[in-house]
Amino acid sequence: MTIKLSRRRFLQSTAALSAATLSAPALASPQMNAVDGYKALVVIFLHGGNDAYNMIVPTSANAYADYHAARPKLCLTETEIIPLPIKTDNHIGIGIHHKMSMLAPLFANGEITALINSGQLLAPTTATAIANNQVELPQFLMAHNMRQNLWQTGTHAHNNPLGWAGKMMDMLNLNSELSPLIGLNGDKRMLRSLSSGQTIINDQGVNKYSKWGDPIKIDQYFAHFTERNYDNIYSRNFAKVMQQSVTDNEALKQILAAHPATQVYPDTQLGKQLQMVARLIDARKTLGQQRQVFFVSRGGFDTHVNQKVAHNKLYTEIAEAMAAFNQDMHTQNIHQQVTTLTMSDFGRRIQANESGTDHGWAGHQLVMGGAIKGGQAYGSWPDLTVGSEDDFNNGRIIPSMAADQINASVCRWFGLNDQQILTLFPHLIQFDKPYVPFI
Description:
alpha/beta
């Protein structure tokens, strides 16, 4: 449940109520999934469109030469690249931005890897197929809000108010007092579910109802709502949501007090968010949650200008926070059951502006955890030369790995079967390999 009552929460809950009165939940699976043990997914959303072609860089000679020629003023020099002991599916060596050096040991021991040239696709696509109108493209390719929605809903479902992770949890049909769909700092579309609200929390914990000193006063305050027999269904629902919000708030406050931070994290936006995630993972048994999905985010990636300066700060923050979180999961002895995945609106153009890049299409993502199959990168490095089959619209690189394939792979690891996954991502039938074997 969302922790504090808001207009958004009431509207969402009444919308769900209306849907429930009209029909049974269409997304619920007719059979129970066999869910064993515990698993958590942590999504780190990089808002603004991360120029991942300066995060993961080719080190093979010919590929680096093409990269350098495409963005001579903005490319990383060889001294700004940390070579990694892994290659892409088409045998291109890669390195990582020097400000992400803390992640290099994790690449070396197989705890983190890169998903190469990924993005929104409805079917495998080339420049020739696009030019000949032989393939359908996702809508609004370069729009921030639409790209963010598609990562969170599935490429076919940009108008769907529910998120794929929320629907995944509907299908798993797991119950707990507090929702295991947990958003840091606000409502998240990816976590919207037909059967459950979201647990919304900030990096400091839950907010306080300062006007009330104890639970008895809170109960008394809400008695006039719950004890009245409202004729209107929305009034009854509103009363229920108000009381439950405060009850959840107080319960989670006590749970967090019993699960303080034990790992030192960097004092940054992402560091503080991941520290709170780690505390809620530590509290999983108290919360009664076999599955948890977390959504954290960091803005600042819309780098039309001064990109190198921005990246130095942002990539340092990402690497330090992810490394601290990875160590925390080891300390908790839960590393094998927690997977962390980055997402971003889109990649950016290979051809640079004077000091930045415009909106593009494909990019790269990082995935970390004990369950991943590291030791290699996944996906093929594209041809970055102008006019190649991978070049769409002046340096906007066409993805070769669909976001839906990445998300579907995580869903399968989480416990969904193939039929359920195809319900979430129906365009997977267009791909010879619907899953990416990184997990």
